[in-house]
Amino acid sequence: MHIEEKDGKSVLACTVGKTALFYDARCIDDLHKMLKAKADWVELGGTDEQKPAKEGTVEAWGRSPNNPVGGWYGLKKGLRGRFGVYVPPLMEALGLCELEHNPKNNRIRAR
User: Fold this and answer.
1) Distance (Å, rounded) from C-alpha 41 to C-alpha 51?
2) Residue-by-residue pLDDT tens, the chain, 111 positions
3) How far apart are CA 45 and CA 52, in angstroms?
4) Residues 26, 42: contact at Cβ < 8 Å?
5) Over the range 21-55, which residues count as b (16 or more CB within 10 Å of their CB) and which as e?
6) Rounded-to-integer distance, Cα 12 and Cα 69, Å
7) Which terminus of the chain faces fewer neighbouring Cβ atoms within 10 Å, N or C?
8) Which residues is 13 bridged to in the sheet?
C-alpha cells in the first residue's frame, strides 16, 4: 500500500496480486476519527462491493452516505468494497489502532 496522486487526488493504492484497488487517502484519518468517537471495538465486516455490508461495521461505514465523503471511499467501480479488509491493517501498522487477528469476525478500535 502506498499514497499516490490519481486524477489530481491523493489516493491510497492497494495491490493484491494483479488487482489494483484505490481508496480516497483521507479514509485513514476519517476512520480513525470515527473509531475515536466510538471509543469501543467495531467489527470489520469486509465484503465485496456487490454484497451488502453488515450494519455497524467498518465496511458499512466505508460505504455510508453518512461518512465524511458521503459514500464510498473505494474509487474503482466494481472494486470499491473490501474497505474493512485492507485499510485496518495499514492503520495498525501506522500505530493508529488495535486490531484483532482471529480466523473470523475481527474487530478494530482506535489508539
Assistant:
1) 23
2) 999 998 888 999 999 999 999 999 999 999 999 999 999 999 999 999 999 999 999 999 999 999 999 999 999 999 999 999 999 999 999 999 999 999 999 999 999
3) 10
4) no
5) bbbbbebbebbbebbeeeeeebbbbbbebeeebee
6) 15
7) C
8) 2, 22
Length of the chain: 111
Quote the CA–CA distance of 17 and 107 in Å, as a whole number: 25
Phi and psi at residue 50, to the nearest 5°? -75, -10
Whose grid coordinates read 469501543?
Answer: 40
The DSSP secondary-structure symbol of 74 reads B
Amino acid at 111: R
